[in-house]
């Protein structure tokens, strides 16, 4: 167990999937949590509140559009007012679009870079002053295995996630002599609702079972033939937040079932 009692955690893109799993784990270890995202906000709030271990813990939500710098600034201010300045910042918000480079929509390119990369810059620049004042902070950027290697037809996503890893290293160097750490985690295939839809679409297209579609998807990239789970990633975030992680700085930690070992 990592004791985060009294700490404030802000997790972007946390109303479902990986972000929600991380938010629940942080709450289960005592943190106040600010959620961000769209969709089933009430359901996400209920799940995170259910995970808390103290009646004094606070759980809130802000619906900032992570492609808009002004809304991100409003979210950071709301966090400070409602819960306190963020001690733990998890930059998880992201979107995807698939197309060949010559057919890639410029609007989609700009949107993916704004949400997947620029939002990480905006939250970090706004969180760092208060972290420096307290000489403690944990910044975890959810990159991707696509921050380390590429796949065809994912130009904007791969570019953004490579950028997240570069930004992580710069932030780690600039905070190296403080109690603040900054690291990236790089998941492979994770069974989120979005990926489940891909499995279902593959099964329909190939006229096969969901299990065969799942194994087919995994076998193309992930040697373990098993999905990474949001809970797996949440445990890694928790470790990076612990005292044991204090000298892990600027890492791009892959959790990918062997994807990048090939």
Written overview of the protein:
It is a single chain. The protein has 262 residues and is an alpha/beta fold. The protein has two domains: 207 residues, 3-Layer(aba) Sandwich (Rossmann fold), CATH 3.40.50.720; 37 residues. The protein is 47% helix and 13% strand. The protein is built from eight helices and seven strands; from the N terminus they run βαβαβαβαβαβαααβ. Strands 3-2-1-4-5-6-7 form a seven-stranded parallel β-sheet, with helices on both faces. Helix 4 runs parallel beside helix 5. It is globular. The mean pLDDT is 97.
Percentage of residues in DSSP E strands: 5-15%
**CATH architectural name of the largest domain:** 3-Layer(aba) Sandwich
- Shape type: globular
Largest sheet: 7 strands, parallel
How much helicity do the residues have?
A: 40-55%
DSSP summary: helix tally: 8
CATH topology of the largest domain: Rossmann fold
Termini separation: 33 Å
Class of the largest domain, according to the CATH hierarchy? Alpha Beta
* CATH homologous superfamily assignment of the largest domain: NAD(P)-binding Rossmann-like Domain
Number of domains: 2
- Which structural category fits the helices and strands? alpha/beta
Rounded average pLDDT? 97
Low-confidence parts lasting 5 or more residues at pLDDT below 50?
Answer: none
């Amino acid at each position: 167990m990592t004791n985060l009692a009294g700490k404030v955690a802000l997790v972007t893109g946390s109303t479902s999937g990986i972000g929600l799993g991380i938010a629940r784990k942080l709450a289960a270890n005592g943190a106040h949590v600010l959620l961000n995202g769209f969709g089933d906000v009430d359901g996400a709030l209920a799940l995170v509140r259910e995970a808390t271990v103290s009646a004094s813990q606070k759980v809130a939500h802000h619906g900032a559009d992570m492609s808009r710098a002004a809304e991100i600034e409003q979210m950071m201010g709301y966090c400070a007012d409602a819960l306190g300045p963020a001690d733990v910042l998890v930059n998880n918000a992201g979107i995807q679009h698939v197309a060949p480079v010559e057919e890639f929509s410029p609007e989609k390119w700009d949107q993916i870079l704004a949400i997947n990369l620029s939002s990480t810059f905006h939250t970090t620049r706004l969180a760092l002053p208060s972290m420096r004042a307290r000489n403690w902070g944990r910044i975890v950027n959810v990159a991707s295995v696509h921050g380390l290697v590429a796949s065809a037809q994912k130009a904007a996503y791969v570019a953004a996630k490579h950028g997240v890893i570069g930004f992580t290293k710069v932030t780690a160097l600039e905070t190296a002599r403080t109690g603040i750490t900054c690291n990236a985690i790089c998941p492979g295939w994770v069974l989120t609702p979005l990926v489940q839809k891909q499995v279902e679409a593959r099964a329909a297209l190939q006229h096969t079972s969901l299990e065969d579609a799942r194994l087919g998807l995994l076998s193309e990239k992930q040697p373990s033939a098993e999905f990474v789970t949001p809970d797996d990633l949440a445990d890694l975030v928790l470790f990076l937040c612990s005292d044991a992680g204090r000298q892990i700085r600027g890492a791009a930690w892959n959790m990918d079932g062997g994807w990048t070992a090939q």
